[in-house]
Design brief:
2 copies of one chain form a homodimer. By secondary structure, the first copy, chain A, is α/β, with parallel strands linked by helices. The first copy, chain A, is built from 11 helices and 19 strands. The first copy, chain A, has 2 domains: about 200 residues, Medium-chain alcohol dehydrogenases, catalytic domain (Quinone Oxidoreductase, Chain A, domain 1, Alpha-Beta Complex); about 140 residues, Rossmann fold. In chain A, the strands form 4 sheets. In chain A, strands 3, 5, 6, 9, 10, 18 and 19 form a 7-stranded mixed sheet that branches. A 6-stranded parallel sheet of chain A has the order 13-12-11-14-15-17, with helices on both faces. In chain A, helix 5 packs across helix 10. Chain A is globular. Chains A, B: This is Zinc-dependent alcohol dehydrogenase family protein. Chains A, B: Belongs to the zinc-containing alcohol dehydrogenase family.
Amino acid sequence: MRATLMYGAGDVRVEDVPDSVIKQPTDALVRVTTSCICGSDLWPYGSMSPADGPARMGHEFIGIVEDTGSEVTTVKRGDLVVAPFAYSDGTCEFCREGLQTSCVHGAFWDVEPEEGGQAEAVRVPLADGTLVKLPVAADSALMPSLLTLSDVFGTGYHAAVAGGVNERTRVTVIGDGAVGLMAVLSAKRLGAEQIVLMGRHTARTDLGREFGATDVVSARGEEGITAVRELAGGHGTHVVLEAVGNMPAYEQALGVVRPGGVISRVGVPQYEEAPIGFGSLFGHNIRLAGGPAPARAYIEELMPDILDGTIEPGRVFDATTDLDGVPAGYQDMADRKSLKVLIKP
Amino acid sequence: MRATLMYGAGDVRVEDVPDSVIKQPTDALVRVTTSCICGSDLWPYGSMSPADGPARMGHEFIGIVEDTGSEVTTVKRGDLVVAPFAYSDGTCEFCREGLQTSCVHGAFWDVEPEEGGQAEAVRVPLADGTLVKLPVAADSALMPSLLTLSDVFGTGYHAAVAGGVNERTRVTVIGDGAVGLMAVLSAKRLGAEQIVLMGRHTARTDLGREFGATDVVSARGEEGITAVRELAGGHGTHVVLEAVGNMPAYEQALGVVRPGGVISRVGVPQYEEAPIGFGSLFGHNIRLAGGPAPARAYIEELMPDILDGTIEPGRVFDATTDLDGVPAGYQDMADRKSLKVLIKP
């Protein structure tokens, strides 16, 4: 079968690899029908050392179950399923609490060196806990939106939920990438009073307005902070959804969060240490929340709104390719020519 | 009148200073009947540069109103009142939300260079928003417990409230100082299922057990972390109340907090940067909460339990002095000979 491998920064290749097969009785083998490239794939695309490669890529996919291990009971051959970006057993104490990304038996896809979603097929561990059956056909026009349940929509929604967004909150969203736009859509869904989107790519912020942003601030740094604070009544917003992950985004968040407010991070931090002392978080009781989204926890909750057409998160996909086009898709996303690239293997 | 001044690290003096007087129509002049030395006073006592002194000390006091400005309506001459460690107007948007430490007109006492609680009298700005009348006489045996409402009890309680402690939470309290012990009492009051107190001073941890600690761990570092995690079922506790403020305490908190849990800090951070990336907070969705306690917000809520004898937070005071003994009181607290020193000016 064919799969995507990253050999190092800027070096993505699609190659023949051994077919994925069932190995554990809890596995399912899924023939991928739709997958995509993630904004988080761009971090290694920008910096990965060849010594860490080659790595199988992709953690968002929909596909048809082709085979199952002997213990799998919730999905069967022929089912169309969506997989979240981390697999989980569905039964441990963390899964039961909705924190599947901390499942005691689960993991992120990158611990499976021979599997990845940007491929023709994937062996899915812990299939019962991980996969969710989709009540549509594989050629449904809803496929792009349903695919966002595997990561970006769940991640944006997690930011909003972890940030405690409700109808009394003013919200700033930092980042106009796919996750940032999903955070806007999620804040809107939770009824936020005001949603200020910080971003400078007009096509993206325009989509953000359609998703529910009430204001757009393109300025960055002190100028951007001043603009957001003025829009939000002078003291900043109750909630900041940080959907980028680098230090400038964190500093921006510190600048626009209101005393007593919360910074909810879902952009994977590209830093370990950051300011949290009296002058940043502590002095005004600013809270920090977020982490890898337990996307699995939100699939059943978010799917109905997609199925009935209430929301269309799949609009974040602005390009489609087959596997051959994946390397160019990475480059287009890195160049900001594409917002998010859908893959039809 | 006489007041306490800190001239630098280790150099505390009680001196004659100009009498405090009403300056603003919103001021009250309070004759101090009971005050105390705070654990946070020990930070400058350990490190203050003489260039930053002399500084008036003390931010916890009870006293009798001696005079009021023309606009003060809620307290009058002769009232016995308690003051929280920050003054606030009681009317701004943050005060109305119970975040009086971020009051737009308020401040901590250290911005008032000529006032402090370790003195015979204090000019209290924004008296209507700040002071709370006590329904007892100044010689009541409840005085030590009522004084804890000005800071340490409110601070411990804030840690527990900000950490979301309830009857389903396991809690670790880091630090067996007065605030840590108040955090234990507060977690108990909120019904915590388990309260593990980390501390190594037996007299203090014994008091912690009386306040509600179910377990005491005296080990620190990796050994202490392992012990707490084992006590808490293997994954750490849902909530960590960090009542110290230095980096080892923060690192300890990271070690004992459960995935999806919260570190609630009320020890004033002696650091600005700290680990919050994937390997510390982010990877397991660990939240960070806390800050300076809006002690004013909790006074009415906590006072009844003191008045009816349900709780006795004043047991954290293990020494009493007059003003002359304040310098020795600082040294005794720094030497851990005293837990917390009450002052009867």
